[in-house]
Amino acid sequence: MIEKKAIEKAARLLLDSKAAIVLTGAGISTESGIPDFRGEDGIWKKYKPEIYGNIQALLKDPSKFWQLAEDVAPTLFNAEPNPGHYALAELEKMNIVKAIITQNIDELHQKAGAVIVYEVHGNINRFSCMGCRASYIKEQILKKLKKEKPPLCDFCAMPLRPSVVLFGENLPNFEKYMSVDIAKKSDLMLIAGSSLSVAPVCDLPIFTLANKGKLIIVNNQPTYMDEKAEVVINNKTGIVLPLIVKEIKNIKFERGKHS
Ligand code: APR
User: Fold this and answer.
1) Between β-strands 135-137 and 122-129, what pairing exists: parallel, antiparallel or unpaired?
2) What pLDDT was estimated at residue 244?
């Protein structure tokens, strides 16, 4: 049962904010069929991140990484946005949310219509050669995977890799600096579907708090920031976020009636 009071409070905070931003994690995409990393059926429960998810492992044995990639690729490539993604895109259209910082690589925020999206962990639809940096798109990789694993570069025959951030790698500079800058200037951060367990992204809420900003957390597991948040709703983002948007519209209607 979702507390009506928490939805109302979250809606008011968002409606009365001046520079609200959103931080999302893999939890917002599980209702689109994409497994998260640390939830009940998280990817890291099946694949050890130190073997499958870090840059040293990829350099040592790219075929291990591609084994994981092939396992999750079909769900990743065929996934569609869920009501949680659409709710956030609507908050951006209502000019309430100024930007979405996402740790997700699935492009579902953009597919749902969101525009200002900072992909701090990269994107699964771009690939490059680990040798000469030649770039490839998803369709080329899918064709290559039918004949070779790992897929190799047409020019230098080195293995290819997706443009995603692995453990032990830096975040893309632009997204890293932009996400810190907007977190520092934000008066409200809505955190949706993240365990807040991976640096440096998990530090972003601290910048908003340092700016006297407030936090709203929607996650179906507790996070280390819960006691600092104004509102914590432990339930599905695909249910909660649309309820918050609906409540915002109700409040706007009521205010319109009395203005
Ligand atoms: N609604 C709300 N919360 C959900 C839902 C849902 N439908 N599904 C899962 N969750 C919660 C999980 O309980 C978990 O607490 O979302 C959170 C997802 O946390 P993680 O799996 O740790 O994902 P994330 O926070 O995005 O991880 C950050 O870690 O492995 C790296 O690069 C990877 O970007 C990833 C980063």
Assistant:
1) antiparallel
2) 98
**pLDDT given for residue 19 in this prediction:** 97
Q: What pLDDT shows up at residue 176?
A: 96
199 CA to centre of own chain? 14
Q: How far is the CA of 159 from the centre of ligand 1 (A)?
A: 29
Our answer on whether the CB atom of 150 is closer than 6 Å to any ligand 1 atom is no
Residue where the block lists tokens 């000019």: 95
Q: Which domains does the chain have, with CATH numbers?
A: 1-34+82-121+171-259 (3.40.50.1220), 35-78+127-164 (3.30.1600.10)
Q: Which pTM was predicted?
A: 0.96
Tokens of 9: 């409070």
Give CA–CA dist 163/178, Å, rounded.
19
Report the separation in Å between the CA atom of 193 and the middle of ligand 1, taken as the mean of its atom positions: 5
